[in-house]
Hints:
It is a single chain. Helices cover about 25% and strands about 35% of the residues. By secondary structure, the chain is α+β, with helices and mostly antiparallel strands. The radius of gyration is 20 Å and the shape is elongated. Pfam families: SNase (PF00565).
Amino acid sequence: MRRAGVLAFAGVLALAIIGVGEAEAPDPSRATITSRVLRVIDGDTVDIRGSQRVRLLGIDTPELGEPYSEEAIAFTKRLLLFKTVRLELDVKERDVYDRLLAYAYVETDEGWVMANLEIVRAGLARLLIIPPNGKYRAQFEAAQLEAMIHHRGLWGTVGEVLTVSELEARISEVVNQVVTVRLTVAAVLAAGNGRRVDPSETRFGFHLFLVATCPPVSLGPGTEILATGVVEYASLKDGPRILIEDPTQIVLATDVEAGSP
């Protein structure tokens, strides 16, 4: 990997860690239920003693038959199956299927870890934060960002930071992969149910698309950013794009450089 890519990754992670440091940290002592995992249903659902089904909060692993579903199940089995777990609940304790909604802590050789976060950090789950639950949102966002930047699991195999020109030149290689691209904002336009961000460097229509549900991101012409996400290429007319669903997918280049050694 090029040195610029390494420095950029280090900067993005440093910023994420700073944000997490300001939030409440997970703590197994807050758990109110201790039980044993007897069965793993899928990557984010397990059964514990007493015939209780538990849905792990904050995450969504691939459904059976989808890419990385088997890897997610195997990871959850290694982490939780036949292990004693401590379960911490959030505001809403059960879902419409009467599953217990919980953060699951398990003791490893390195100490207690939250399984939900470890699955995200391994790149085997996307975030699924449904209010009123969301106590550890900052930690989940940082874990997903780490997985995306290091292209683990769901997040693809393209390891370096690309320029817009490099992305467009390698479009057949990077389509449907997660990439980090460095670009300069030329314009931000209303488009359908969201906003379109056009970079000044594009020759073939590459752009970012911020979905309507994405919290506001302040981007003006001339702003240099790093954006991470899946490259989509549905049509020649629209050109390739990266869908932005969460503000953590975008980092100011100046912040990355300030946080780099």
